[in-house]
Specification:
Helix 2 runs antiparallel to helix 6, helix 5 crosses helix 6 and helix 5 packs antiparallel against helix 8. The chain is mostly helical. Helix content is 69%, strand content 0%. The longest helix is centred in the middle third of the chain and has 25 residues. The chain starts with 9 loop residues before the first helix and ends in a 10-residue tail after the last helix.
Length: 230
């Protein structure tokens, strides 16, 4: 595959890795009981969140992962994870900060994935898919390592939907001539806003079983149907 016409600046990529490392460490530090982690475990989770999205993005694009071509990626992810772990007590009392940080990380990985795919000549729809995979990839790896149900597969606060909206904007805006850098910045903002609003107002997609709830209730009479009378 040829080199892209647009490359993600190193500082921007490292910023995403660092924020992801902090967010991952804060997530892991909050577990109690049988899932308590030691420092190494927390650091590993932080590193996987920080680097997982970029690894998945470059693998899908058929490129050598950028995070393995420089010392700074692993050093940044490790340092950020330790920082997040040491300050977890403070951050865990600031729920709004954690929510916003998580939303920004999702937006950045999604925007970087979509932008890099478009720059390599990938069509818009696959480019959006790659961006969403990059956005949620770190979280999927985290859940797998910790033996947790994969969050993206269950009812939640528009995790992948927020990333999809931001990535779709980038692809559409760029197809209409907007510079990819500007489109990526706006895409990050869109993703972050949707994610924060979804968490704040507890918005999620309907459960699959609700599609058939009314029909089953009618056929079996087990689940009551409430009729509103004017």
């Amino acid at each position: 595959m040829t080199e892209p016409l647009f490359t993600i600046p190193l500082w921007a990529d490292l910023l995403g890795v660092g924020l992801g490392g902090v967010q991952g460490a804060m997530f892991a530090s909050g577990f109690q009981g049988q899932r308590r982690l030691d420092w190494l475990g927390v650091a590993i989770i932080g590193i996987m969140i920080g680097m997982g999205g970029g690894l998945i993005r470059d693998i899908l694009l058929g490129l050598q992962p950028a995070s393995l071509q420089s010392n700074w990626y692993l050093l940044t992810a490790t340092g950020a994870a330790l920082f997040g772990m040491l300050l977890a007590g403070l951050f865990n009392r600031l729920n709004k900060v954690i929510v916003v940080l998580d939303a920004v990380v999702i937006g950045m990985f999604g925007a970087f994935g979509t932008s890099k795919a478009i720059a390599l000549g990938i069509p818009e729809v696959p480019a959006v898919f790659i961006g969403v995979c990059a956005a949620v990839g770190g979280g999927v790896l985290r859940d797998m390592l910790m033996g947790l149900p994969t969050a993206i597969m269950h009812v939640g606060s528009l995790y992948a939907v927020a990333a999809g909206a931001g990535c779709t904007f980038i692809a559409v805006a760029n197809s209409f001539g907007m510079p990819i850098t500007l489109a990526a910045v706006i895409g990050i903002v869109i993703t972050a806003i949707i994610r924060v609003l979804a968490v704040s107002f507890d918005v999620s997609l309907p459960e699959q079983r609700r599609l058939y709830r009314r029909r089953v209730a009618t056929e079996t009479g087990i689940i009551p149907i409430v009729r509103v009378e004017n």
